[in-house]
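// run 5 | inverse folding | seed 20
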C-alpha cells in the first residue's frame, strides 16, 4: 500500500554533511509522525530524530545540535540534514512513517511503514 524510498546516503569524511530524503508514495490519506532510525554494526536500532505532523521534533542526545529533521507534507517527504558528521554516526539509516491509507482508517492509529535503509559511512 505504501512505499518509502530513501536517498542521500553515502561516504563522507568526518566533519562533512549529508542530507537524507525519504519520500512516501502509494495509497496515502495522511501521515502522522515520521522519523529516522539508525543501526550500527553490533548495536541496537535507535531513534535518531522524530517529527510530528505539525512539525515539532525531537532528537537523540548524540545528534542534537548537529542533525535537523524536517518534512514537506505536500510531497510526503521527510529529510534529515546531518552536519558535523562523526565516525560514530556510521550506520544504516531507516526512514519510518506512520500512515493512514484512507479516511475510514483515520479513526484508528496509523500503521507504520519502513524504508529499505540507506548506508551512511563517515571516515576519519
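// decoded
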Amino acid at each position: 500500500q505504501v512505499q518509502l524510498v530513501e536517498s542521500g546516503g553515502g561516504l563522507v569524511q568526518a566533519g562533512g554533511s549529508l542530507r537524507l530524503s525519504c519520500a512516501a508514495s502509494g495509497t496515502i490519506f495522511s501521515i502522522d509522525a515520521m522519523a529516522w532510525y539508525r543501526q550500527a554494526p553490533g548495536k541496537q536500532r535507535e531513534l535518531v530524530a522524530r517529527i510530528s505532523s505539525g512539525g515539532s521534533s525531537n532528537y537523540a542526545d548524540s545528534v542534537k545540535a548537529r542533525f535537523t529533521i524536517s518534512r514537506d507534507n505536500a510531497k510526503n517527504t521527510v529529510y534529515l540534514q546531518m552536519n558535523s558528521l562523526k565516525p560514530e554516526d556510521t550506520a544504516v539509516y531507516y526512514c519510518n512513517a506512520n500512515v493512514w491509507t484512507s479516511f475510514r482508517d483515520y479513526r484508528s492509529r496509523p500503521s507504520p511503514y519502513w524504508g529499505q535503509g540507506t548506508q551512511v559511512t563517515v571516515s576519519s
